[in-house]
Design a protein that fits this description.
31% helix, alpha+beta, single chain, Dna Ligase, domain 1, globular
Length: 101
């Protein structure tokens, strides 16, 4: 299954399984945390400039919306993000996180 990798498009975090990726830093056998550290770094960056809540959207590989949660608190998202990423990978979904100030 392809690894999720963060993509910056404006302000949201977009985590996508891009099969066309040919190079980049690997996870060195850390399959249980694919993208987890990078996503946490992005959440920390948003929090450092005042983001306290986030809208979370799941989309299919084709771009169709598959789910949405509004106003997820930073602490809740930080706790849930690893399992959300794993679930998105398993279901071949993209996970988009948009911050609120």
């Amino acid at each position: 299954m392809p690894a999720l990798r963060p993509i910056f498009r404006g302000s949201p975090i977009v985590l996508s399984s891009d099969k066309e990726k040919k190079h980049g830093r690997g996870m060195a056998g850390d399959g249980g945390s694919i993208g987890h550290r990078e996503a946490r770094v992005m959440l920390d960056a948003f929090a450092s400039v005042g983001a306290t809540q986030f809208d979370v959207t799941w989309t299919t590989c084709g771009g169709a919306k598959d789910g949405f949660r509004r106003g997820v608190r930073l602490a809740d998202l930080t706790r849930a993000l690893p399992s959300m990423l794993d679930d998105a990978t398993r279901k071949q979904r993209n996970l988009i996180v948009r911050p609120h100030g």
